[in-house]
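Reply to dn_fold:

You asked what the input looked like. This is it:
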Amino acid sequence: MAFLRAGNRLMQFMCALPLLCVLAACGEDGGGGAPPATVQTGTVSGQVVSAANGSAVAGATVSTTAGSATSAANGSFTVAAAVGDRAVVHVEATGFAEAFPVARVTEGQTTSLRVRLLPTGVVTPVTVATGGIVTVPNSTARVNLPADGLVPKNGGAAAGTVNVAVTPINPAVDANLMPGDFNGVSAGDGSPVPIESFGALLIDIRDNSGTRYNLATGKTATIRIPLGTLSPAPPATIPLFFFDESTGLWKEEGSATLQGTAPNRYYEGIVTHFSYWNADQVFDTVFISGCVRDANNQPVANLFVETNGTNYSGKDFAVTAADGTFRVGMRRNSVATLSAIEFNIQTFTITLVTDVVNVGPSAIDFSVPNCLVKKASLLKVSTLTLPGGTVGVSYNQTLAATGGTPGYVWSLNPGSSPLPVGLSLNPSGVISGVATTAGTTIITVKVTDSAGGTATKQLSLTISPSGVVPVTITSPSLLPVGTVGTAYSTTLAASGGTPVFTWSVVSGSLPVGVTLNPSTGQLSGIPTSAGTSTFTIRVLDSGTPQQSHQKAFTLAIIPGGGGGGVGGGGGTLTVSNAPSEIGGKFEANPQTSVSISGNTIGGAWIEGDIFSTHGEGVVLYSDRTTGELTALSFQDYSAGVLTNHWACGSALNISCQGTVTVNRSAGTAVFSGVVVPSSSGFTVPPITLNGTLRFTPF
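and this is what came back:
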């Protein structure tokens, strides 16, 4: 497994879990001559939050060399990025210091990224003609600006007054807030090497119109970077490195000296331009080899393993290979912690999934004696409802569970009502048989995992008399998207049973401002806040015995006005000629993302749980002017592994039959007879897609 050197942002490198395969980049030909070369792109998707309190940051601008997006109300975003090991993602929001996580973007995968923004330390107005000193309260951080020393970064006349923002970073407190990663380029050497930080500082200068400023040619400024290190012996003189926003690397330029007295010590140096500045030194690296196993002693692939310096301020990451092995670095003759982490793109949570192991010191590469053991997630019954049955008709339904330690054994919980006469539950979780008596039964099922963990859940099962069709809610689980301040209305539908129907919410909550009419099943009202709500609705018929059915729904409410990078949505595609595990329909989850990059509209939809069980993904790119489909990809995943793949589009030189029409204002992508051939490396027949996928209109 190639070593992934990515040291500073805990939340950003969760990219080894495959999500969606984005196969094309789109460019514009500005005139005559040869068309521009196709640039392969992937997708970066995640959430922006405040480092101060973990709250979501809405309206943040997230950009790469391949596109840009704006974070939604919950901080989520999706943006195209060029394929490569060092894709720089620039994240900027009012009131926060800029962030520059460096992500590994791989064709056929989506990089999951949680960006934590550090609140700005201080913003002070400074007169350009006189210059001045800007200090951060309760900190030794400061910058001394020369008189007549500031000019607009891109040329032009300087304003009389500018706003100087200064933000220090203490890597000893939180190394994950450092921009880029802990890789730098020494003076006179173009090869990236690992570096150890002793403190960093951002100086961001803009006038009232937002124009950025830098030092004029021939001018210098003196900066003070507060000492922040886990090292017991910081050097008296240290190189200064500035952050190169295009490469994501720190570059050596100048030096600084350690001054002050504890606890108010700082490095002071002279700089000729402004950006992030870092007091760093290069260190030698040793590599740790090891493996990760689950509770059943099976290898765990695509898991991120990190080292975190204990007596130095530095981090490193690696991804486990298919056999669960990894190779990750740390500073030579030092001490660090070793652990594995996991990021959930649906809940935007990051979890420590193994115990923390202390490693080092060592002067040579070494191996840990025991595999790290991945902890099992919470065991739960994931089946939400049971379909109704009919007297005399064969019944077959399989229960499902998630988490814990597979495999699962099913039974009725002690004290549960028995199943309807004629039905039985086997240890594999299959309820089957031919019911002989009509009625509604409440049962409690129990699942036991291989580690002895248990989970239970109550489920309702209705058996209808012979000739009576069971009542079923037929509306799709993903409801039409609503907008804050705009009247919302959609009516749920049911089939079978005996009218009249009665509707109710049995769990979860409707969006604020939206209500359910118990007689008609209409959801209506004026939403007052953005967000995604999940809830379960039950319908009761008027028959004897009375039948019921309940179903989980998701309703996304977006802010008024939309945006250039949007989420929400859902929708259904009919899938023909696909392998049996895909089934007849693709129903998109609400984590839809659609955005504009240049003249291109890019969209991504997922279905199911592609991480631990099974799911599919759909990605498309189209020209927003001509509507031409430039790339379309449909993928099938099993436990995070891409098992089947179809792709077509002009950017791939593989034509798609049929049409896809993307309507931004309506928020729809309509598929009509789209025949997608099997991609190279996968032995499955072509598939046909028909239907509509939805997203937030913009």
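The chain has no helices and 59 strands.
Hope that clears it up.
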